[in-house]
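Dear Dr. V.,

Thank you for agreeing to look over these. As mentioned in my earlier message, I'm a first-year student in the group and I'm still getting used to reading structure tokens, so any feedback on how I've presented them would be very welcome. I ran two proteins. I've put each sequence directly above its structure. The first is here:
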Amino acid sequence: MQSAPFEVNRSVKTTWRTRLRNIIYVLSNIFPIAFKISLFSLVILIIVMIIQSFTAISNIYIMKNLIDSLTKLIGGTSDNLAIVYTYAALQIFILILDSLLTSSSKLLNLHIQQKMTFHFENEISQKTFRMPYMLFESNEVYNRLQRLTMGFGVKGFNVLTSCFYVVKNVITLTGFILVLLSFHWILAVGIIVTVIPSLVFNMRFGELRLFQLYQQTPNNLKSSYLMKILKEKEVMKETKLYGHSNYLLNKWIDIYFINAKEKFDLERRATTTNFLISSIGHVITLIVTLVLIWFCYLGKVTIGAFVAFIQAFTSSINMLNTIVESIATIYEDALLIQEFFAFQAMPEQNDEERQELFPDPLSAGIFVNNLTFHYKNSGLKALDNVSLSIKPGDKVAIVGENGSGKSTLIKCLLGLYEADEGTIYFDNKEIRQIKLRSLQENIAVVFQDFVRYHLTARENIGFGSIEDIENQTRIELAASMTGADDTIQKLKSKYETQLGPEFLGGQDISGGQWQKIALSRAYMGETQVIIFDEPTAALDPIAEVKLINKMMELAGDKTLIFISHRLGSCVHADHIFVLKDGCIEEEGTHEQLLSQKGLYCTMFNEQAQWYTESKFPILD
């Protein structure tokens, strides 16, 4: 596939040369893809369309001869009834053939559309797997991805079939024009004159519609979000208690009607312009009809020829308009398809350049050296020259207030973010040299906003080690370690129970039960490092302490890193790092940090009321 030579032009003013270049670029990329994924069906479809293009021409010729033969028979100038029946039978045959070809074309179109939709949806999904996670922090990338989910596979198919229909109609139109030229060249010129305004109109409004799609994407996403949360069970609890459902609904209504009015205004302009252009075409058709009637009256045109000329002229205009609309569709959809090729050209994580495997076993430890990280959109420095080391098997806490950089540091350790400066080593292997799959196989993580997959309980836990998703023994062992097994055994179909209310037959469970299932994922694989990024934030402080202590025990000789802004869970940690404004403010054990009477001590004393005095030492 060719790389995208340019970004999608979001301006509403485009030159004809640029329009042609856009169409040629998209077609040169879409046709090889289409023939690769559905060669046989496409070849058959092309043959069907070529045959159809000649049936329309044949029908006009047969109709002319049928009417002329019938006229002679009625006028007494001929007694050949057989020829009339022959032409009538031929016309029925052509109509039946055309009907058969149309039905075949529909089935072929559906088959090709399904294969192309699958291809493009699959390609988009596969591309997201290969792209760096950091790119999805960009609103522009996210919006582009959302536009590609709006029936993109159908758009690609529309471009393809529109091209075929243009070719088919051009063949038929050529036959019609030859019929008209047999009478007078002015008829052919009249057709072209009526179509030029339609071509300009369709191309122009195609651009305006796409430009409107770009402008409305943020509002469309917000509108979809508001309507989604208004229907979610978890949100309903708050909206019913606080009574703000009407407020949310009114926000959705405002956005909906802003978008609706913009769309209506554009379509009103398009409809008005199209009406004027169509009226011009009808006036020209009327003039041609009157002229032909006059020649028919003079005896220079037979009734059959009159009908043939009128049918050829009106059909030519309709066909030219169809060609113009198809070209406009190709252009409009081609602009959106450029989004796909631009998306496909975005940077990927190249695992082939990474030559190292994760150390097995991890012997020296994890080393973070002078790590600095900025968020590109905001320019904020989330991490500022952070350095730390973690010994193998240690149970380490990273604490700090919200926004101190804890989660950003974890995402750097996981390889999701790439630091602007500094680096991370696992033993003596630099993280950017370790193969991503090897890194993922050796580090398990549970985030605060862990995913609740509305799939079976077995799948929810098995995702922690996709190779073992059918290993029931291992899944049950991981579930028993976190207490999730007790919940699952009470479910209707146990591990095959569909979780969540999203689908028919799904069984919802509590937030704490979801949490245990998410924690079970971390114990599925043969990982060396386990990271908990505040997954227990929804628990009360005492419950959190108990769960973290249990997780430390279950971790055994594995390295455990957990993030928390509640310090009671850090008491039994081997080492604690305190972050503030993206920097390491303090580090040490719980007792050492309390004795320093710094930030950790202040935070711990402020939280002391959450815990029993007998359990933790609290400074006066």
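The second protein is here, in the same arrangement:
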Amino acid sequence: MDKLHSSELGTFLRKERTKRNVSIVDLSNGLVSASMLQKIEKGERPIEKRICQRMLERLGATNFFYENYVSQQEYEAWKLREWILNALDVEDTSTAWELLQQYEETYGAENKVEKQFCLIMRVQCMQQEKKPTEEWLPVLKQALYETMPNALHKPLDSLILAAEELNLIVEYVYYQEELSSVELYEELFSYASRMDIWSQAKLCPKIALFFSKWVNAQEENLPLEEVATLAERANRMCNDSIEALRIHAKIYFLLEVFEEKKNLISLLMKQKLDAETKKRKNRQYRAELKKMEQFGTLLQSLYTKYNIPAHTCAYTCFYRENEVYSINEVLYARRLMFGFKREDLEDICTSRTLQRIELGQTNVQGYIQKSLFQKFGLSPELYHSQICTDKEEVIQLEREYRLASNSKYLTHTKQLLQQLKSMLSMENLQNKQYIMCEEAQLGFLGRELSKAEYVQQLKEALELTVPYEAVMKPMEDVRLKNGRMQPRVKYLTIKELKIIEELMKLAEGEEKRAYIQMVLDYYNQIEKQQLLPSVMIMYSFIVGNAQSWVGNLGEYTLSDSLNHTLLRESLKVRRVNRMHSFWYNLLWNAEQRREKLSSAENVPDRGQRLQDCILLAQYAQEDFATEDYRKKLTKYKRN
């Protein structure tokens, strides 16, 4: 597997570690020796990419919104991991075993992180096959000790853990029953609650689920009042975990939490309390049960409709990686988009070298990668977000600006943007593109720019990094010198895709159709590789908008197909953002077919569908959509 040798990377690791007041010993624990990490931070030693990634995860420096460029070898390994996770998420265990065997033979022994992954996938496969606990529990323990040799012998708060590592401790504590205790579960929950919001959304509901199961099992062993006290604590933990899920619009382990929460409430309703208190609390509990029943029934029906297992896999969500791309394939795609022949780039590397790079036959040397990326309008950093900076105060300011941009206070938002602009390097094309787009959008919102002027500025911003015509050109096959046909591929950054989405929103008629087709073709190349889960944030945003416009153009069948894909893929990754919109649009398309095409198909009940959409939008805390569905439902009932 790749080894990264970079003084910049070592400096970044040291900066993140010292910023979080983590010692070299604690960060390196179970991964590399402390002396080795010292040399890595000084740029004197390379580091294996997966080890580096685990260290960054331990530090909470996740790359969730970052584009992640890797070598061809690492990309092939990542794809194989994704396919294993895909198979397990739909309980295709035989395929998962087959892919896992292939992965183990190729990558499984390279480092502790790889060994741990392989062991955990084995545990997941055995659990899905319903093997006895005594068969897979030793494998789980072995996996835990791979990177956390002291995990069960040191205070939890003294450990620096990544989310997947804490998950292994949670699993082991639950199934090794003598380790379970109220204090330990609450300590685990407290640790998870201090992690980043994405880790919280995965870990908090799982810990609440296991704690609730443990408490419910005590009913036969303890007096009712003692069990009820525990049930109160478990119920609060369940409520906190549901809020953690809602903040991130996720549904990891949600139905399982609902099941155990119902049992907890049943226990709590048996308490001996004074009549007034009992009446008040039981009213509250019945309201909770009703909400859970309504939303749980809706989710279960969607899982059934799209043939997705309703219960969340124990491990797979912890190993998903988003926006991962092969450096080799990106270079090939961008070269074609820019219209360069290999000979045109001889000042950077020979044609033969570039050919071998594009075919994945060799890794790209650092200076060649940076030079080619800059030639093709890409930031030379292998990890970055929408802005390119390593200054924490600038990153925080950009977050503050994004929050302000969702408000009505344009003056304050503009001030923040100008402050951000003054702190960013405008020599970096990605930063310049970001600022140019934001200034244009604020100008349009403030009515300082006409629609035509706004569109023109967006196109100019896009062309800072990629030719507009290259973006819109159909992806037909390319004829090679030997006569064979090779698929033309595209690669666009997240920011470039967002510009295209904005242009698509503003366009009309045939121009809108051209944008929609370009977007669908782009994501079709990803879907063919079974990699949609890795781009779901952008896919649900861009294709989620495209499907609505497709319906508006009268192409109801295509819109239906896109909505079904969006719903299915969202359920797979336990994501409910905008799911209400996809579910409503299926109703709208059916009503339009009946009205405009005299279709005889069965149309879903409008009242029930609107109630479903209210539940989905409420859960995802999308207040504007919730209110819109309520108005539609009121109007429907009046008619």
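From my reading of the second output: The longest helix spans residues 275-305. Residues 1-5 have pLDDT under 50 and may be disordered. Does that match how you would interpret it?

Kind regards,
E.
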